[in-house]
């Protein structure tokens, strides 16, 4: 009888463990964007990265940090339900700088993967 009770308890614990394994999962439509060539008269460029929670638990973006001060990310602050979409809007401001640039944005979430890098690039040319 003890074996039956122990076996039943183990089955219940395994079932609860499987239930607790639900996890959010982030999937981006694209992880890079090329702004192409633009002039220093329009140094500010914006792009929105769209992601979907393909997991089975709410997804929370904990942090989005850029590689420099010229790139500013803003992101969906509320939890993203399974199957729903969220956004990370990236604003790049070249200021007076000209030339080719490549920047990255590190995104941290509670999902899988926990860390994703997004990339932007382009070239700023001097206006005539």
How would you explain this protein's 3D organization?
By secondary structure, the chain is mainly beta. Helix content is 15%, strand content 49%. It has one helix at 2-20; strands spanning 26-28, 32-39, 44-53, 61-66, 71-75, 85-93, 99-109, 115-125. The strands form two sheets. A four-stranded antiparallel sheet has the order 1-3-6-5, with no helix packed on it. A four-stranded mixed sheet has the order 2-8-7-4, with no helix packed on it. Strand 7 and strand 8 form a beta hairpin. It is rod-shaped and about 90 Å long. 18% of the residues are buried.
Q: TL;DR of this structure?
A:
With 128 residues, this protein is mainly beta.
Write a concise keyword list for the protein shown above.
single chain; 128 residues; mainly beta; four-stranded antiparallel β-sheet; four-stranded mixed β-sheet; 49% strand; rod-shaped
Topology (elements, then pairings):
Blueprint: H1 2-20, E1 26-28, E2 32-39, E3 44-53, E4 61-66, E5 71-75, E6 85-93, E7 99-109, E8 115-125
Parallel strand pairs: 2-8
Antiparallel strand pairs: 1-3, 3-6, 4-7, 5-6, 7-8
């Amino acid at each position: 009888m003890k074996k039956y009770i122990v076996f039943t308890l183990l089955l219940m614990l395994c079932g609860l463990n499987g239930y607790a394994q639900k996890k959010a999962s982030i999937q981006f439509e694209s992880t890079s964007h090329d702004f192409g060539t633009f002039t220093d008269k329009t140094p500010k460029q914006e792009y929105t990265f769209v992601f979907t929670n393909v997991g089975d638990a709410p997804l929370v973006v904990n942090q989005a940090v850029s590689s420099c001060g010229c790139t500013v990310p803003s992101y969906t602050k509320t939890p993203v339900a399974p199957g729903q979409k969220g956004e990370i809007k990236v604003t790049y401001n070249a200021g007076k700088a000209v030339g080719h640039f490549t920047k990255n944005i590190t995104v941290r979430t509670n999902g899988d993967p926990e860390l994703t890098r997004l990339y932007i690039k382009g070239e700023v040319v001097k206006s005539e």
